[in-house]
Amino acid sequence: MIGSVISATLSQAEQDFAWAGTLEVTNPASFGRIAINDPIDLELGGEVYKLMVDNKTIERDGVGMPRLTVSVISPTARFVTPRATPLDRAWDSPIWARDAAEEAIGEAIQWELVNWLIPGGRLAFHDAAPMDVVRAIVTAAGGLVETLPDGTLRVRHRFPVAVPAWTTASVDHILTDSADNLSCRESHMLRTRVNKVLVRDFLPSGSGFLALEVDSRPDGLNHGRTSFVAGDTAHLLQYAGPDVTVADAVASTGVLLPGGWQTISQTQDVVFNGTATAVLDKPSVVLNAVVWLGTDLGEMTLAADQRTVSVPNAGVAIARVTYRSLARAWSLTAPSSVAGEEEFPVEVHCTGITADALGTGEIFCQRDDGAFRGEDISEPLLSSDEAKRSRGRAEIDDGEPLQEVLLSCLHRPGFMPGQLVEVHDALMGRSWRGKITSVSHSAQGNKLITSLELLRHVQPIV
Predict the structure, then answer these.
(1) Measured between alpha carbons, how far apart are the two ends of the chain, in Å?
(2) d(Cα 74, Cα 176) in Å, to the nearest integer?
(3) Are strands 173-176 and 420-424 parallel, antiparallel or unpaired?
(4) Between vectors from CA 214 to CA 211 and to CA 220, what angle results, nearest 5°?
(5) How many Cβ atoms sit within 10 Å of the Cβ of residue 236?
(6) Which of 221, 352, 433, 460 has its CA 20 to 30 A from that of 48?
(7) 251, 331 Cβ separation under 8 angstroms
(8) Do residues 180 and 293 both lie within one domain?
């Protein structure tokens, strides 16, 4: 279809999701017939890669033949912007992580990660590409998304083999200086040591958000009244964060009774003071409208704590935000007098229990003495201990003393990020093992070279 290929590059790294590269071709007629998104089968050293045309380029110097270049990418690119149709999707019922990911992209995934049941109501996306959904689910449990040469989407653990087990595990490839290695470069990598992390399935709120106020809405339960006399009944509104359970409500005098739930429309001018986040006065169940009063910092999103809002760009700006809140109504009927007084104050006190105080939904993951504690991880999608352990191990493995090594060798089929490689090179010292983090193939005529980026486990400096 594309005529003779005189050079090709193809690579995939762990932070990517697909194979991507370029082909330089020599047949102008074939090049002219190529269309964006056309399927391409590329054979490199006996291995076939399923790809699609991403874009094409013509470069002329006015003297020789024009240079014709075709950029290619794995067909899983159809799951990302701009090819994918954005999703507005919420899973109100419990669903298995793998089922949700496959439902988002509409096809099967080679799943090599823990599978767990995500509680209903915790998984929701607005204007998201299907791949964004998959990545959010997979990243929660310490996984990565990538594409196999045959075009299949694959989900795996960030470290398929735990770092301490590298010395005894079976390796995927053995490279030697006599048959494979062309060059090798070691470099220093600064890493923060981590061997203990706390993983929870909720967002901690510190003291939590709990507020009680008089219903001052003109069309509210008090019909706009904000002051009352002895014997009156005053209606109150109680707001609580999503991680707060109201435990008690008492008044210093009178009769306090709970009522039903109210949907309250709020309008607030939210100030961004050189930041990309701000906080709403009340918890919000949905953002109805955002009007920028001047500088526009981009689309606003609401965090799981229902109060923090974020935008893509930090800056100084004001947004007029209209949102809906849920509030519990309470009625307080005051006595006609207290201690002989017809004018008196009334104190109403509410207490709540935060998810932190409940002591559920969190586990510690630890390796060795646990002397190096990393940042706590709060991930509402992780409902099972197995899923939490998966995420915890990923963070601990990433916190091991790992050195980056760049190695180039003669091409061989089957290299993929995440694989274990054993390297024997007498000039670099003793043999060692490492995990592949990036694979790049380069073909020029009959010359086919593979470049690898690897992480090598080294002994920490005491």
Answers:
(1) 59
(2) 31
(3) parallel
(4) 115
(5) 22
(6) 433
(7) no
(8) no
pLDDT tens-digit readout, 363-410: 999 999 999 999 899 898 998 999 999 999 999 999 999 999 999 999
Report the alpha-carbon distance of residue 158 to residue 143 in Å, rounded.
5
User: In the structure encoding, which two tokens stand for residue 391, read together?
Assistant: 């995420």
The two structure tokens encoding residue 202: 């909720």
Q: How far is CA 419 from the centre of its chain?
A: 23
Predicted structure pTM score: 0.68
Judge if 227 and 351 occupy the same domain.
yes
Closest CA to 405 of 181, 166, 160, 146: 181
59 and 139 assigned to the same domain = no
**167's tokens:** 């010395």
* Joined tokens for residue 126: 């607005």
The per-residue pLDDT for 358 is 42
Q: Which residues pair with 267 in a beta bridge?
A: 322
Query: 330-366: b or e for each residue (b if 16 or more CB lie within 10 Å)?
Result: bbbebeeebeeeeeeeeebebebebbbeeeebbeebe
Contact in structure between 447 and 438 (CB atoms under 8 Å): no
3-class state of residue 427 by DSSP: helix
